Amino acid sequence: MAEIGKSLSISARRLLHQVRNANGNLAALGARLFKIQRSDIKMADPPAKHEWIVIWEVYHDRQTELRS
Fold first, then answer.
1. Long-range CB contacts (< 8 A, 24+ apart) of 47-53?
2. Given pLDDT bands bounded at 50, 70 and 90, which one contains residue 42?
3. What is the mean pLDDT of residues 54-61?
4. Do the Cβ atoms of 36 and 46 come closer than 8 Å?
5. What is the pTM of this model?
6. Given CB 3.0 to 4.6 Å as the disulfide criterion, which of 16, 18, 22, 55 pairs with 26?
7. CA–CA separation, 62 vs 60, rounded Å?
8. CA distance 53 to 19
9. What are phi and psi of 24, to 5 degrees?
10. Helices of type H across the chain
């Protein structure tokens, strides 16, 4: 995953950092990610479509970690 991370945009890397460090606020962060992806919340440099695949994969992995 480290190799993939290096090829991501700064905005995608920042969102991934937030996901990895989320504890009790993961659900709220997920809602915000969804709104960013749908352009309901604007970002100066939103992640590209292929970056969202990585972001959501890390999100779901983190969700599984926190549930166990």
1. 47/8, 47/9, 47/11, 47/12, 47/15, 48/9, 48/12, 51/8, 51/9, 51/12
2. very high
3. 97
4. yes
5. 0.88
6. 22
7. 5
8. 14
9. -75, -10
10. 2-6, 10-21, 26-37, 49-67
